Amino acid sequence: MRFTKMHGLGNDYVYVNCFEEKVRDAPALARAVSDRHRGVGSDGLILICPSDRADVRMEMYNADGSRGQMCGNGIRCLAKYAYEHGLVRRTPVRVETDAGILTLDLSLEGDRVRQVRVNMGRPRLDPADLPTTLSANQMVDHPMDVRGRILPMTCVSMGNPHAVLFVESLDLIDLPRDGAILENHPVFPERCNVHFARVNGRSDVTMVSWERGSGATQACGTGASAVCVAGVLTNRTDRRVLVHLPGGDLSIEWSEADDCVYMTGPAEEVFTGDWPSDG
Predict the structure, then answer these.
(1) Does 18 participate in catalysis according to the annotation?
(2) Count of CB atoms situated within 10 Å of the CB of 261
(3) Does pTM top 0.90 for this prediction?
(4) What would the mean pLDDT of 173-191 be, rounded to a whole number?
(5) Is the pLDDT of residue 277 over 80?
(6) Where are the beta strands (DSSP E) in the chain?
(7) What is the pLDDT averaged over residues 243-269?
(8) Which of 77, 155, 192, 220 is the catalytic position?
(9) What's the number of domains the chain is made of?
(10) Are 141 and 218 within one domain?
(11) Active site residue 220
(12) Which residue range(s) make up the domain with 157?
């Protein structure tokens, strides 16, 4: 089975072109290929599939085999693959996801995609959309006990669930420990993506991410979008921010005109190979 390794700011996935390949057991394949010692090594698996509603359809699986609704870095890479491999030869590209149909504008240099701007849609701020057991008035700056420290937590759904905690210093965060505690906290019955963010200025934020089902990642596009929304909701940032992640920078804007969040960033193809089986 042919696969392609791609990444957006180091948030890496194995892609399978399901216009040409068949995958029988996607969760098992995701676990196998994501293993960084015995597999290809990745944060998960993304299948590029035909769609009767959009140009292509994205099916995303986390490294533990669980299904993910959306991935901002992953969808940028999918659009790059779809264009450069001839599945779609126009811009914008419409991609069907478990979080709805998203529109992606491609910045081209010749036949190569250099940057992708994604309309991530409107943030969802109802507790049922995450889901969480918190009430609506607890979703913004809710005091959360993290190993004895009380941190303000704001919850945002970008088609998948996010908890954003603003901190004075990221050096005080034990990401594997704190991220895992919050991912599996009882207030999130379906688990949650967790982000710790330091505000450097009204338009500049640094963050680290613990992704549901994958752990610490170099970048998280939906998470960066959630951090922007949380920054505006708590009056910590403006609507347009540059977000610094371990793997690089993303430009995020929560538009006042249409209430949608727009994410702009790069996408890279690393290599193509053959996997001996699909499970």
Answers:
(1) no
(2) 25
(3) yes
(4) 97
(5) no
(6) 2-8, 11-17, 44-49, 56-62, 67-68, 93-97, 100-109, 112-119, 142-146, 149-157, 161-166, 193-201, 204-211, 215-217, 240-245, 248-254, 261-265, 268-274
(7) 98
(8) 220
(9) 2
(10) yes
(11) yes
(12) 127-257
